[in-house]
Amino acid sequence: MKGNFNHKLTESEVQPVMLLDLRRQYEVIKDEIADALKRVCDSGAFVLGPEVKLLEQNISAYAQVDYSIACASGSDAILLALMAAQVGPGDEVIVPSFTFFATASAVTRLGAKPVFADIDPVSFNIDPNDVQRKITHRTKAIIPVHLFGQMADMIAINAMAQTNNIVVVEDAAQAIGAELQGRRSGCWGNMGAFSFYPTKNLGGAGDGGLVTTRCERLAKCLNLYHVHGMNPRYYHSVIGINSRLDSFQAAIINVKLRYLEGWTNMRIQNARRYNEMFTDAGLDDKIVLPATLDERRHVWNQYTVRVHDGLRDEMRTSLSDRKIGAEIYYPLGLHEQECFKYLGYATDSLIETYNASREVLSLPIFPELKEGEQRLVVSAIRDFIESRAARRVLPAAVPTLSREAA
Ligand SMILES: *Cc1c(COP(=O)(O)O)cnc(C)c1O
Prior knowledge:
By secondary structure, the protein is an alpha/beta fold. It has helices at residues 22-43, 49-62, 74-84, 102-109, 128-134, 154-164, 216-225, 247-257, 260-280, 312-321, 351-359, 371-391; strands at 67-71, 92-96, 113-117, 139-142, 167-171, 179-180, 183-184, 191-195, 209-213, 296-297, 303-306, 360-363. Strands 1-9-8-5-4-2-3 form a 7-stranded mixed beta sheet, with helices on both faces. A 3-stranded antiparallel beta sheet has the order 7-6-10, with no helix packed on it.
């Protein structure tokens, strides 16, 4: 394989590699999707209805839980879970700073205060030690995020939650099918929030989400809250929201769920192949490859490397020049966001989050990605690193923070 990397690409050989090409997946399931959509049209049931019921049953089985409540988005799934946990003004909810915005905005929407915890630099997931430090008598819930498709340390988090009587809501938006000790994401916390946004491992053709739980009481709450708190019709016992999944989305997701294990295994294979290619090219000590922690099944929603010495943005530009898609998830920790300035976090108060946000780069990893495309990605990165070394240019001015300094 080594030989493949000794060939420099000429201009005419430059081919695009998309970060995510959903059309390849669609090509395979086109007819099944058309049939499913037609079934919905023929049924005349467009919101909730039998396809949504079926999806809830399917996800309950897949995520190893007793109850699933479908809703309009992953963001709503988090919001509904916090509503069911009775989170409100005066409460604190511990969330990682290194995550998608929706993890924290659900907290503020209910008038509660997000408390940002730092991450473990290897897994990018919330650091249980920092969670422990941030628990107060006001802590009502913790939202561990299974970032990039790998489960957070649910054993440590559940233990802390139990001791302190805190609700755990898993943000499993990026991690359907991920496992820890053989148990799936969404079955560890009191509730789990999933997203069917098209870029997730199980995506619909629009927005969609779902909450899982093993608790009958919470399931009843969630079932009420997502339809205006209404039961029976036009009688409202609580103030809910309108967050229903439509039948088209459910029908599409039901079709795709049959393929999910196969697609996940393709993602795992692609990750393994990147690791081999980067190692064979001698790049495994030039960039930090993503790691799968013990006892876990990583489902690779993202394959995220770290680029040191302030070279990340330049590397991304050089990939983009070769029409290779790469994305930064996420360029700024939530504690540094304009809208959360009022919480008063210093930039360097969460060092691992700060460093990760300046160093991460996610590469194409979708199931249908071809070996040849992966090779293009790896050679582009190799060429960039070689050219950078040849020029002996000093690192750009993006300092990372040292742990000692803080
Ligand atoms: C995508 C995502 C969400 C939100 O899901 P939507 O369906 O887009 O609302 C929440 N948390 C994380 C970590 C996500 O990646």
